[in-house]
Automatic annotation (TrEMBL):
It comes from Pinctada imbricata. Gene3D superfamilies: TolB, C-terminal domain. Residues 1-21 are annotated as: Disordered. InterPro entries: 6-blade_b-propeller_TolB-like (IPR011042). This is Tripartite motif-containing protein 2.
Amino acid sequence: MITSEPVVSQEIDDHSKTNNTGIVPTNAPTFSKDMISVKKNVSFNCVSFGLAIITVGYDKAWIMDHKSDTMYFYNSRGKQIKSKTIQRDCNINYMVLTRFGDMVVSTDDSNIRLLSYNGLVSSQIDTKPLKPEGLCLTDTEEIAVCLRDLRDRKDGANVTVFSRDGKQKIRQMRGRSSGGNFYITDPFRVVNVRDVFVVVNCMEDAVCVDNDDFTIWQYKGQCANLLKAFQPLDVDKDNYSNLLITDGKNHCVHYIDINGELLRLILTNEEIGMYYHWGISVNKKTGDVWLGNSIGTSDIVVASYLSGCTK
């Protein structure tokens, strides 16, 4: 049995982005833990494992995995609408959409491609020898990229922020601490929330880093009754600036606040009938969440997890 009592993450440093109550609040809508209420809306089988999911509009999403050069566009009723191949025999790692509908795609040939709405490559970023994985856009549409170092030393791993056209490298983040340690060790997924970035180190932990590259907190799934070791694989934010982190080994999602405190374990296998959670995407228009798995049948679940949420 997995319990879900609130716990506190490990604080690394105290910097200007925080105050006595944590990260400085903004105009996000008011949140209460009483709003948490999980309901499975629909599930369907997809031709691709849902290792990365990007919701679009009110009821659609792009779905992709790491072993295919094609991504698939589905509606929430499980109907495949179309598919798209970026580069033949070049597997897709992740994709994000700009507000104009352009695509930013990371691929396993160590490239990031910027595609205009008509599908033409407008810019390309070579990240060799590092492998690009998760992506996110800032409020100003700068591109943050997880760059994994798969060499033995692994000392080059970082999150790099590029200009919106991909032509300028703005900064690199490794998650420094005052003690000289680096907390971004194997960046796999990243999301920008307010003035900070939350980075998932593949199957290890999640860390929160400010714009000055200082680590604010580290979350290791501090929940005493987890049956297995914490295995974070993806992260997204919702309209309340809370974070949803998938946990593959424990078949659930860790719902935490912006200060790294666990609110509750949600979307568990008992609640939605899914195992080996991996890809996740919150639809900011409806408040629903799309989840994909990584083992067995390639299932997609669309569920709600909050009652009375702002849509």
